[in-house]
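Tokens in:
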């Protein structure tokens, strides 16, 4: 199967995407609700990385209807769908690559990502987590709900498979492709702490869908 760029992959799947995630990916339906419940009660400003159609925001807005959300995603069609679902909310939507975008310093009470980080390498993630840590206010938190594995051998196998695909298909350097490269829960925690978060911990898991929380202070 030919690897697709991330934007092409999700643009072609906007129709039916919500139903797929809610009904076919184990742990996602429950994970959206759990993520919203884990946000601090004082959350007023939120950064959502890879926000897509806003499935996590559907639950978050039920608990935090007045929150101002900055959402970043590569796919315009998904951002348009998010805006259609929540026309009355405080949404700042940015079409772009969050690996490259400047989030600012001390701007957000919390940051979240849902099923988007498992496509990146360890160096890319650590650099991104450093930016997230800087963007949070003191005592802010970052919640990541994602596809994570528990067996280091499975992690190695999937990383080798990703390298094989990139080499065989001669994928262009610098572009983001939809290739799964999940790390173990333990390695995810290590990356967050390496990036400057004083504490990171796994809080919830159903199937391979796992929520990790990192605190900025």
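Residues out:
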């Amino acid at each position: 199967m030919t690897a697709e760029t991330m934007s092409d992959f999700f643009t072609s799947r906007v129709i039916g995407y919500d139903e797929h995630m809610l009904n076919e990916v184990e742990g996602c339906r429950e994970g959206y609700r759990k993520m919203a419940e884990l946000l601090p009660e004082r959350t007023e400003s939120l950064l959502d990385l890879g926000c897509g159609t806003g499935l996590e925001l559907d639950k978050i807005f039920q608990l935090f209807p007045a929150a101002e959300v900055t959402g970043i995603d590569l796919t315009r069609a998904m951002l348009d769908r998010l805006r259609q679902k929540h026309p009355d909310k405080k949404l700042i939507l940015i079409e772009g690559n969050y690996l490259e975008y400047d989030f600012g310093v001390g701007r957000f009470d919390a940051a979240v990502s849902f099923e988007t980080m498992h496509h990146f390498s360890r160096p890319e993630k650590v650099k991104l987590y450093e930016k997230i840590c800087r963007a949070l206010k003191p005592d802010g938190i970052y919640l990541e709900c994602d596809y994570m594995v528990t067996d280091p051998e499975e992690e190695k196998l999937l990383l080798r498979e990703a390298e094989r695909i990139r080499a065989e298909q001669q994928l262009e350097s610098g572009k983001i492709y939809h290739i799964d490269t999940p790390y173990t829960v333990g390695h995810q925690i290590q990356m967050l702490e390496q990036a400057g978060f004083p504490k990171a911990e796994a809080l919830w898991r159903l199937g391979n869908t796992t929520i990790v929380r990192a605190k900025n202070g």
